Amino acid sequence: MAKMLMINADKCTGCRNCELACSMAHEGVFRPDATRVHVYTWEREGFSVPMMCQHCRDAPCITVCTPHALTRDPTSGWVDLDDAKCIGCKMCVQACPFGNAIWDAVTHTVLKCDYCGGDPSCAKFCPTHAIEWVDDLVATRTRKRAFSEKFKHAFSE
Amino acid sequence: MHGWIGKVLRVNLSTGKVSTEALDPAVARDYLGARGLGVKIMIDEVDPKVDPLSPDNKLVFVPGPLTGSYAPSAGRYTVVTKGALTGAIASANSGGVWGPELKFAGYDALICEGAAPKPVYLWIRNQTVELRDASHLWGKDVPETTDAIRAETDDDAKIACIGPAGENRVLFAAIMNDLHRAAGRSGTGAVMGSKNLKAVAVVGTGAVTCADPKTFERAVMKARDMIQKHPVGGTGLRLYGTNVLTNILNQVGGYPTKNFQDGHFPNADKIGGETLAATLLQRPKGCFACIISCGRVTKITNPKYAGEGEGPEYETAWGFGGDCYVDDLEAVTKANFFCNEFGMDTISMAATVACAMELYEKGLITREDTGGIALEFGNAEAMVEVTRLTGIGEGFGKKLAVGSYRLADSLGHPELSMTVKKQEIPAYDARAVQGIGLNYATANGGAAHVRGYTISPEVLGVPFKVDKDTIDGKPALVILFQNLTAALDSTGSCLFATFGIGADELAEMLSAVTGVAYTTADFMKCGDRIWNLERQFNLAAGLTTQDDTLPSRLLHEPIKTGNSQGMLSRLPEMLPVYYELRGWDADGIPTAAKLGELGLAA
User: Fold this and answer.
1) pTM recorded for the entire structure
2) Which residue among B169, B178, B327, B425 is the one 20 to 30 A from A28 at the CA level?
3) Is the pLDDT of residue B602 over 80?
4) Which residue of chain B is at minimal alpha-carbon distance from A39?
5) Does the bond joining B312 to the residue before it have cis omega, within 30 degrees of 0?
6) Residues A120 and A149 in one domain
7) How many inter-chain contacts (A to B, CB under 8 Å) are there?
């Protein structure tokens, strides 16, 4: 069964442990500016949203990637980035509708979530299950159940 | 260096000169960072006798060696200065995301010295450091200032700033960061205001490195597990915030009411954490790297007090609530929002209102003095209004701006101020809980619960249960907690991590990050050293054993109702033992032998 990263923004507390785990896993240092996951916090409302590559089925980043550094793995279905082929044109950064392909101005490289090869550090370090590494089938069901519960409360009152 | 960046940023506000210098590895090893490094900088560079609001005082912002890592809930920084309220060493720590950002910008400390000739703000983007004109920001509150500076610098800049209270030198003004978090106590904001420094905006894109990532990850995972499995650290604080303590403290009869005239509040539940969770709470929020999320994102829809923000914490709910005999949670929360927006310490603000209410009750302040406000205990609207007036520096608020000690003293009744070293006592009654009273009396920055939180063992039974009523063993317990906290604060960790972990785990994580091997004993000795250095600053500032005391009310007027009825603080019996166990003489002065042991001998 395929797995995906499920984001439950309503559970996110904005702690950014995911960013730290991600930069440590990929860069060997704590550097939130160089992470594949970013938490965007709306300070006034106290609301935070973790964001990372969604490994789109029809991925704009692959479409625009002239040197074919970005490709789809036929087995996993993930969007892979081959650093050796990347020419740093940043077209993927501009094409991603979510801003999830990141240009690191310090190392001059593109950063993009690779699911840590199948054991994502962000999910492991998230203290509130705002980011979960789950079976894709279960993920959708869980979301449906959570949302339907709101209906239950609304109509049972 | 690992854990530490190895660099200190110095800004002379008088001349505008910006410079950097290397962090001395030996100093880092012995004083860690944050509170410890801050006090070391202060004692090396500042005459302790200096007027806190003069350009000769310095204002130091210091993250710790764990700050910026994923050590659980260790994303804090400390502001160290000579306190405007207290005239003693002040160290106020704060969470949010500002402290780590300073480290990612490449600094272990920011030293602000001198005073700018006109309002300025500091804009730090990694190695680019610039002092900018802030004339147009003067008078703006914290959210307005934050928005305006972001518009001029970077949308993602992290901002620490003062509001009108700091500008007006309200003696308990706070430095606010990330809108809602406060380096709250002792008047750090007034010192910042005296330097004409409106804000420090930071963007940092650099790294914090780790000496031994594998060992560190193992130590962090263990610590996280211990905190998450703990009933307080793992669940209680996220569900109900620190305000879960309201009902607990009221139940044991240690919940001060009416400016400590009593120790019990019949309506406590109406302003407690459980009620907050069921009413105004929107969601819990975590500071940087936090796994606890005690932060309360709250919203008031009632038009009378409409607003959104964060809080109240337990101390705040107690201060504006029980201490003022107010049981209106919306009013309490609104007063909290005002403190955040105008930049004031909620504890000192609230306790000063409570003191003013007692002065009003006794006829020492009249309705004429207050400008027509009926400042009676229980009057929620009056409480909110005088808080607002203090924040904006108008009317009767100007009288409250000096804190309860100077207010009561000016009316000939200093004994009605519930303070130690002129700083307001927080939300635990020293008559009902013996150890915490000794901690208040001896805390170097004036009365504070977060210097030696013996409430943990004495009331909550964490990590072990101790009889709150006895004085046996309390001096040793207080010293243990004070030393542990001094070391913990200096790593950048949050005190709440101790609802799960202790010195063993902190020393382990610290060693793995920095590559400096700390045993638990080494770590505790750092705490002892830092405590004694703070003490030396205070002694040199002119404080004496006379300042290590509690208000006479807590020593002579028993609690009237509740489960600690009839109790008094037995501080005079504990203090001499405390001095002796600290290695201090009868005047509270560290002996030469003690200083030698800690490497502090002159």
Assistant:
1) 0.97
2) B178
3) no
4) B288
5) yes
6) yes
7) 89
